[in-house]
Amino acid sequence: MKAVQILKPHELHIIDMEKPSVTEKDNVLVRMTAAGICGSDMGIYHGTNAAATYPRIIGHEMVGVVEETGPGVTSLKPGDRVIVNQVTSCGHCYPCSLGRGNVCDNLAVRGVHIDGGYREYIPVPESDCYLLPPLFPTGMR
Ligand SMILES: [Zn+2]
Ligand SMILES: [Zn+2]
């Protein structure tokens, strides 16, 4: 599958990488359908984003369709449209214990600290997905 990778500042490539599969029981495989281009993506490209590490598959504002679910997934099914949370948090540090995963001590942002959504497929935990309504209400297709 194809992905957009910034190898180092000012060097962006379309790369080929192996299509990921669902390896964790609570994971879903999301087929990406859209990803925003953010000002921070520009910073990662230009080398002015202090948080970014390279090489990096960028893309932290992501929408897609669930293609496959792990055996432990209960709230999503293939065909569901989802937004993928850009923030990954550890779930057990002090901020996480207060429900503030956005400022987790071990925070990693997809597309910044870890690989993000500018690719055809991304595997993510079910809990990192927010269900969206269908594009058209039933019966309008
Ligand atoms: Zn952004
Ligand atoms: Zn945490």
* Low-pLDDT segments, ≥5 res: none
Helix/strand structural class: mainly beta
Calculate Rg over CA atoms: 16 Å
General form: globular
CATH superfamily, by name, is: Medium-chain alcohol dehydrogenases, catalytic domain
What number is the mean pLDDT? 95
State the helicity in percent bands: under 10%
| Order of H and E elements | EEEHEEEEHEEE
- Domain unit count: 1
Summarize the structure.
This protein has 141 residues and is mainly β. It has helices spanning 39-46, 94-97, and strands spanning 2-8, 11-16, 27-35, 56-57, 62-69, 81-84, 87-88, 108-109, 121-125, 129-132. The longest helix has 8 residues, at 39-46.
SSE topology:
Layout: E1 2-8, E2 11-16, E3 27-35, H1 39-46, E4 56-57, E5 62-69, E6 81-84, E7 87-88, H2 94-97, E8 108-109, E9 121-125, E10 129-132
Antiparallel strand pairs: 1-2, 1-4, 3-5, 3-9, 5-6, 6-10, 7-8
One zinc ion (ZN) binds at residues 89-91, 93, 95-96, 104-106.
Task: Characterise this structure.
The protein is mainly β. It has one domain (2-131): Quinone Oxidoreductase, Chain A, domain 1 (Alpha-Beta Complex). The chain is 9% helix and 35% strand. Strands 9-3-5-6-10 form a five-stranded antiparallel β-sheet, with no helix packed on it. It has a three-stranded antiparallel β-sheet with strand order 2-1-4, with no helix packed on it. Strand 1 (2-8) and strand 2 form a beta hairpin. It is globular and about 45 Å long. One zinc ion (ZN) binds next to loops.
